[in-house]
Write a sequence for this structure.
């Protein structure tokens, strides 16, 4: 190796080290705007080991999209290995209620169990079924926005972004309206465990929420066994009794997953999206001038521009190679959705918010086996709230800079105060 080659290799190694160092998910500066750090990761290579989280970071769109479909990876490894065989420590016994609840949901399962559960749940998300919800979704979005306008503004997150998807999923499941205020706090506590290296106090809250949520759903399932209705829980019970092998724990975990995943993305896409619009007044003005033409592409662009789910994890079940780097079995990949959605190899001017963007293959809803089953419903909810706000609050403005949640994986705001 000559001196020039050695110098080049040393420079590239330094750049890669610096890029990995810029990936600092606990840093307020990084959380405020992670996209410049993502650009450095993409420029420095296709995969990078990150010691603080013991993960391999994957920042390129082509790699993330391909790996989401790669069966050598999995959301779990327990269908093939024990913790010890896989070189991993089992979770602490005190965390068991969370893991029982989480690990029996289809998001953290692989085939054939995942296939069986998804087949049952998918009946509730057929295009026809989702379309039947449109009057309810649009009517509720309009009422929520009308109330916000009547009060002269307020917190867009608490008044519109959160109650809309929670109510829709609760309506699908058959959760009584009087019980729905319980759902968001439980969900927030459980979702805290999806962050990188969550502290023990987060685990304590998640365990408590898991126990309470599980107990509530057991009671609701018992009621639906006695008095079935047209809701999803009744449908899951009927499928079970017709011979499908769906345990009560799988029913409970599925309901929790649908409630959590069914609103987290929509809530955060709404507040992230409006915050982006307020910071791009020309784009907001264009949207107000032509909502009929721009809302469909605007929804996709807002999901891409500030991605609500920044990272999706995968376990390496069999050795794989990425860009000449061998990633061994037992390792964990961090597929960086936010970085993939800003990859200039796929998106022209990715740092620009372009509500008319047509070529927009973002992966905010994941891909492959675990593609978001509720994506059509989420798009409907986002469109409904966006149209209602454009119609009833045409002069909506930001009242004050919003505080960002101290989370990385699930990216959102604490509040979004607006004036009408």
């Amino acid at each position: 190796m000559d001196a020039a080659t050695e110098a080049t290799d040393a420079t590239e190694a330094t750049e890669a080290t610096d890029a990995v160092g810029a990936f600092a998910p606990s840093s307020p500066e990084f959380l405020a705007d992670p996209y410049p750090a993502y650009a450095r990761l993409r420029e420095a290579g296709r995969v990078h080991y990150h010691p603080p989280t013991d993960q391999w970071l994957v920042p390129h769109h082509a790699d993330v999209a391909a790996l989401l479909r790669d069966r050598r990876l999995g959301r779990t490894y327990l269908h093939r290995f024990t913790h010890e065989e896989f070189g991993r420590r089992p979770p602490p016994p005190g965390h068991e209620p969370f893991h029982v609840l989480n690990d029996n949901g289809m998001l953290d399962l692989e085939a054939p169990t995942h296939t069986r559960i998804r087949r049952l749940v998918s009946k509730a998300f057929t295009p026809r079924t989702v379309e039947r919800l449109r009057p309810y979704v649009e009517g509720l979005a309009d009422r929520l926005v009308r109330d916000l306008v009547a009060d002269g503004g307020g917190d867009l997150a608490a008044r519109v972004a959160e109650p809309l998807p929670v109510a829709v999923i609760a309506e699908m499941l058959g959760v009584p309206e009087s019980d729905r205020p319980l759902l968001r706090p439980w969900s927030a506590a459980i979702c805290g465990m999806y962050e990188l290296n969550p502290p023990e106090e987060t685990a304590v809250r998640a365990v408590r929420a898991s126990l309470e949520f599980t107990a509530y759903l057991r009671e609701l399932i018992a009621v639906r066994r006695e008095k079935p209705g047209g809701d999803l829980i009744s449908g899951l019970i009927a499928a079970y009794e017709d011979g499908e092998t769906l345990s009560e724990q799988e029913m409970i975990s599925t309901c929790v997953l649908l409630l959590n995943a069914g609103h987290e993305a929509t809530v955060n896409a709404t507040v992230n999206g409006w915050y982006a619009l307020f910071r791009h007044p020309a784009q907001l003005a264009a949207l107000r001038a032509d909502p009929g033409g721009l809302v469909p592409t605007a929804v996709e662009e807002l999901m891409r521009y500030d991605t609500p789910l920044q990272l999706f994890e995968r376990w390496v079940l069999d050795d794989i190679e990425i860009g000449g780097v061998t990633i061994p079995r037992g390792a964990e990949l961090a597929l960086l959705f936010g970085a993939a959605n800003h990859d200039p190899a796929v998106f022209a001017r990715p740092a620009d918010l372009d509500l008319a963007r047509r070529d927009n293959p973002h992966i905010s809803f994941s891909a492959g086996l675990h593609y978001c089953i509720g994506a059509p419903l989420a798009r409907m909810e986002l469109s409904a709230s966006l149209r209602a706000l454009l119609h009833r609050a045409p002069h909506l403005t930001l009242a004050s800079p919003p505080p960002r949640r101290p989370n990385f994986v699930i990216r959102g705001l604490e509040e979004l105060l607006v004036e009408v």
User: Anything to note?
Assistant: The domain at 90-309+369-419 is CATH 1.10.630.10 (Cytochrome p450). DSSP finds 18 helices and ten strands in the chain. The longest helix spans residues 248-278.
